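Fig. S4 source data, part A: sequence.
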Amino acid sequence: MTDTSFKWTCIKCDKEIPQHQEYCPECEEKQYRKIGGLLFVPFLNLFLIAYGYFTSLTVTLKAGLETIGRLPISQSSYLFIAVGINFILLLYIIYIASLFLRKKKELPLAYSLLLIAGIVLMLIDRVATTYVFPNIPLGFIQVMPIITHTFYACIWIPYFRYSVRAKKTFIW
């Protein structure tokens, strides 16, 4: 038997590295400099979230403008407040997308706040809608988005908080 020990090498350049690493320091810096791995999923989801808020904004604005003067003031006000909130959230999503592309260290907190704010606003919206518009029943279609967004937040908030990939990518 020979007494040669096994050597751990970098996946990219075959330099010798410690056992707990995959890349040498040079290759690791290059690898984590770009957005990769599972980070594409929340980045692409930003576009879906933005589409949802934009659609909500246009539908609510159209309903508010078509029914202005025919609805009670509380219902008209509710519609226009919803338009304003959707517009603010769209601006926040643009800000988060810029953080994502610039790989800023503020991104994990900002993305988590977006997810939490979305869930809280959906809860407030569902409760307020039942009071302001008593003819609209609260059913499965209104509750299911809250459940799916909560499930999504339970996955991505811990990922951004504890993932080595996220900690090494968003460092600026």
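Fig. S4 source data, part B ends here. The longest helix spans residues 73-102.
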